[in-house]
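Bumping with the actual sequence this time:
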Amino acid sequence: MPGQTVSEKEQELRRKADRYMPGGSPGNEYKDVVIREGRGGRVWDVSGNEYVDYLLGSGPMLLGHAHPEVVAAVHDQIDRGTTFLARNEAIILLAEEIVKAIACADEVRFSSTGTEATLFAMRVARAYRGRSKILKFEGGFHGMNDYALMSSEPKELLEFPQAAPDSAGIPPSIQAEVLIAPFNDIETTSAIIERHHDELAGVIVEPIQRLIPPASGFLEGLREITERFGIPLIFDEIVTNFRFAYGGAQEFYGVVPDLCVLGKALAGGFPLTAVAGRQELMSYFDPALTDQFVLQRGTLSGNPVAAVAALATLNVLRREGTYDRLFETGRQLMDSLERLLKEAEIPAQVAGVPPMFDVFFTDAEITDYRSTLASDKAMKSRFNQLLRERGVFKGDTKLYVSTAHTQEDVTHTINAFASAIDELKG
């Protein structure tokens, strides 16, 4: 791979980005590079620098960039129209496939972003329960809607179950509608639910919170306490669906919620998400079946281009051995990173699962949001930059692994780990 250079063209594009977009970006964090194209497990910037890509568009590109079967399906659909609002064949077939794959899914309703999907899942839980409060977990990320942006990255650690807004512009009244619990602490969580069960509409959780796996018995305990009080349990599987197993995290961990939200890897890089769940709850989306109808519409919801991309993606993921290879690739990377850090005697914890992981620079065990605060963020930022200089492109807080990453990609990445860690130690 060539050494990093910044061409005049890229410099000009960066100047235009700073001029025409607040903060120089469309709203995401990665503004120190301008990407030109991606193929398989790699991307190239406008200056021609090549990277092994573990950002993967923040996860959607589970099959890698420009997978030929996804591209072919999209080209074919574009020739026949790009959106209709009315029902189309592809979205109906996709709904059928999701119901077959996802344990909690009797029915499916589509949207375009994770922010919408989590909002609609919480809305339908409120309609079903006739109550307004939602319980979420400190450090849990559920998109950009007002209810989700509570205590995802709180600057002030409040006493549970108080919520803190993560953004300006959120009405103060929203804080009173969200309760916060500590992830992986079933005792405290159960006490909050028991105390507030008459007010709760639902509980929303990432089955693996960002990179923190659930402790033994945590999801099972959460399922038991919500069932006891008849409170819908919502799994936010925007990240985990079709990534950990074909049936998502609910298959991987063996715990079935009442509702789930799906996205990212589902549509192979196209804007499509879904709410799926038990018919008893999903019926609230149907105006013919209830007088407590939940309004949910979107001009591009069920878009046929995204739907055919999703069908092609799922067709590839169903093939024998796909997940074995994905996990083996991630396992090589995780094990090597852990070994290299240990040999360098750098205090660190490699957290996550093989398809999605990263490092926390701390010797403390990572179990919840508050335990992550002990990690050395400056060292993490430096590590990420050193990897970028060595042709490895990753997000601030994750490495996503794709089925397209080759052994050559893995070897290059492990060598980059070794070189970066050697410089960190020095």
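The tokens above came from a reply further down the thread. The two ends are 24 Å apart (CA to CA).
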